[in-house]
Automatic annotation (TrEMBL):
Enzyme Commission identifier(s): 3.4.11.1, 3.4.11.10
Domain Peptidase M17 leucyl aminopeptidase N-terminal positions: 7-134
Record: residues binding Mn(2+) 2: K270, D275, D293, E354
Keywords: Aminopeptidase, Cytoplasm, Hydrolase, Manganese, Metal-binding, Protease
Annotated NCBIfam families: PRK00913.1-2
Chief location category: cytoplasm
GO MF term list: aminopeptidase activity
CDD domains registered for this protein in UniProt: Peptidase_M17
Name by which UniProt lists this protein: Probable cytosol aminopeptidase
Lineage of the species this protein comes from: Bacteria, Bacillati, Actinomycetota, Actinomycetes, Micrococcales
Catalytic residues, chain numbering: K282, R356
């Protein structure tokens, strides 16, 4: 295959590092690169990437050598789908531009092949929608809004696989491309500036995305505007959105497979398109990344569309709870009491704890349809970031078996997640003397009391609990530190892969 960049895997050995299996290089090239690895003191571990030009016996003008072993020695040297995904991503991040990149990595099975494709596509991701296009020589730049720049730095990505002509391998490639495209779309939504992305424009974007999908006929869209939300009794999201000139929306996406569905799942996403904190105003420095407060809704939208495009035999619904939390003249106040969709009255303690309010209404709406299980996804609490850092999501559940399934799906997807408890003794912190509940406790166990609040709404119309999981993705949804593996700065698209893996696994049981 012709390519101007060749990506090869590297692993640790007793002398330092060696080329991984699966590259099929002529002896001359392999010998040269082995000597180069020694001279560069390569480690063969993740994010150890080296670019070598004009390798003898290789047609590509550049060879990118990427580590495939776990980053830390204590984790061993095993090459897994996770390390292949990250290694392929790190390699593509090192490619400034190319017409074609060929990956020759150890993709000996479907999981590794999919990981290589996902990693490469996501590592080459760049958000360019607001970049001004460079005018052609002699042309004057256009005035007005920014023009779309080159959509990517790599025109084509190729993967060397022994079974490339096999139908199962082709299906694996198609699914990996679909998942990577869905994750990239979630990244696009998160990276979009908040003056351009607000509740209605979010709805418009998802509507257009569905309309362009090959699975559009299988996805039903329902949108509730502010008047309809008030009529539905969704006091949580109405209250959060009332301080903004851009009113709230709840957007429902319902994917139904052909034939009888093997089950049903409902995903609920927090979609605060910008969070000032409301009248409990955040410090300015804390607002810099608050365009990412809709990452949960972005992940839900992308995962439902991906499930439909993959043709999974399980019904998947998404509820995007969209609002802008602003301190306008009609903004909600601490001390207000609102009535939720479920009929529960809630006393507002802190207008900067708004995410749980919009989710609670979404959970109630979803629960009324009696799905097999509910999952809410939200950039919910700084407390979770303090507990788990900025690369690991917190998982809470009212059902141990279901929580274990979500955790296993995250492991399969390569998205770090850690289970957290829902201690019953903390429930007392949510008692209100003047309402059924208050929506926030004190500073201790803040992520847990947020989960306990949401648990109150994970029920059907008769008040019976539905298996439910809460994913607090406040840390991994948005990267401000250095890129790593296939994860670039800005929106990461975290949780899309987990939600798709959960649906795929649900259909398989």
């Amino acid at each position: 295959m012709d390519a101007d960049v060749l990506v090869l895997g590297v692993v640790p050995d007793e002398t330092g590092a060696a080329l991984a299996a699966g590259q099929g290089l002529p002896r001359k090239a392999a010998t040269h690169l082995t000597e180069v690895l020694g001279a560069l003191e390569a480690s063969g571990r993740l994010d150890d990437v080296h670019t070598v030009a004009l390798v003898p016996g290789v047609n590509a003008r550049k060879v990118v050598l990427t580590g495939l072993a776990p980053k830390h020695k204590r984790e061993g040297t095993t090459v897994s789908p996770d390390t292949i995904r990250a290694g392929a991503g790190a390699a593509l991040r090192a490619v400034t531009s190319a017409d074609a990149v060929l990956l020759a990595l150890p993709t000996g099975d479907a999981a590794r092949l999919a990981a290589a494709i996902e990693g490469a596509l996501l590592g080459s991701y760049a958000y360019t929608a607001q970049k001004s296009a460079k005018p052609e020589s002699g042309a004057k730049p256009k005035r007005g809004r920014a023009q779309a720049a080159d959509p990517g730095k790599v025109a084509k990505i190729l993967v060397h696989a022994a079974d490339a002509g096999d139908k199962d391998a082709k299906d694996t490639v198609t699914r990996a491309e679909t998942l990577a495209a869905a994750t990239a779309y979630a990244r696009d939504l998160v990276n979009c500036p908040p003056n351009l992305l607000y509740p209605q424009s979010f709805v418009d974007s998802v509507t257009a995305r569905v309309g362009a999908s090959k699975a559009k006929a299988r996805i039903q869209i329902v949108v509730h505007d502010e008047e309809q939300l008030a009529g539905l009794g969704c006091g949580g999201i109405v209250g959060v959105g009332q301080g903004s000139s851009r009113p709230p929306r709840i957007m429902e996406l319902h994917y139904k497979p052909r034939g009888k569905a093997a089950g049903s799942l409902a995903y609920i996403g927090k979609g605060i398109t910008f969070d000032t904190g409301g009248v409990c105003l955040k410090p300015p420095a804390s607002m810099l990344t608050m365009k990412c407060d809709m990452a949960g809704a972005a992940a839900v939208a992308a995962s439902v569309i991906a499930a439909a495009e993959m043709g999974l035999p399980v019904a998947v619904s998404g509820y995007l709870c969209l609002a802008e939390n602003m301190p306008g003249g009609n903004a909600q106040r601490p001390g207000d009491i609102v009535t939720m969709r479920s009929g529960t009255t809630v006393e507002i303690i802190d207008t900067d704890a708004e995410g749980r309010m919009v989710l609670a209404d979404g959970l109630a709406l979803a629960g009324e349809k009696q799905p097999d299980a509910l999952v809410d996804v939200a950039t919910l609490t700084g407390a979770c970031m303090i507990a788990l850092g900025n690369k690991v999501a917190g998982l809470m559940s009212n059902d141990d078996d279901f929580g274990a399934r979500v955790l296993a799906s995250a492991g399969e997807a390569g998205e770090p997640m850690w289970p957290l408890p829902l201690p019953d003794d903390l429930r007392a912190k949510l008692e209100s003397p003047i309402a059924d509940l208050q929506h926030k406790g004190d500073q201790y166990g803040g992520a847990l009391t947020a989960g306990l609040f949401l648990r109150e709404f994970a029920k059907d119309a008769d008040g019976a609990e539905i298996p439910w999981a809460h994913l607090d993705i406040a840390g991994p949804a948005y990267l401000t530190d250095a890129p790593f593996g296939h994860v670039v700065k800005g929106g990461t698209g975290y949780a899309v892969a987990t939600l798709v893996a959960l649906a795929a696994g649900w259909a398989a049981t």
